[in-house]
UniProtKB/TrEMBL annotation:
Has a glutathione-disulfide oxidoreductase activity in the presence of NADPH and glutathione reductase. Reduces low molecular weight disulfides and proteins. It comes from the Bacteria. It comes from Neptunomonas phycophila. Keywords: Cytoplasm, Disulfide bond, Electron transport, Redox-active center, Transport. The gene is grxC. The keyword Glycosyltransferase does not apply. Pfam families: Glutaredoxin. GO terms for biological process: cell redox homeostasis; cellular response to oxidative stress. Residues 4-63 form the Glutaredoxin domain. CDD domains: GRX_GRXb_1_3_like. One of its GO terms (cellular component) is cytoplasm. This is Glutaredoxin. GO terms for molecular function: glutathione disulfide oxidoreductase activity. Belongs to the glutaredoxin family.
Amino acid sequence: MMSVTIYSSDWCPFCTRAKMLLGHKNVDFTEINVDNNPTQRQEMMERSGRRTVPQIFIGDTHVGGCDDLFALEQQGKLDTLLHKNQ
């Protein structure tokens, strides 16, 4: 399975939803909390081109935010991306 990284914040309900979907699919992920961490927030913005959380990466592919993750799931593309090159 591809590695998954999610930049998140403790107060963000969209982060919670995204993590719940990944957990439901038994996907291990690395969470990078950007609360009070300007270095990590800057890294997130440079990698994604976005300022909001969550920002989700599967391997080197920037998925986007929570809505983007759920759209991939609804389209049946999330599992394919998670298992790419396996």
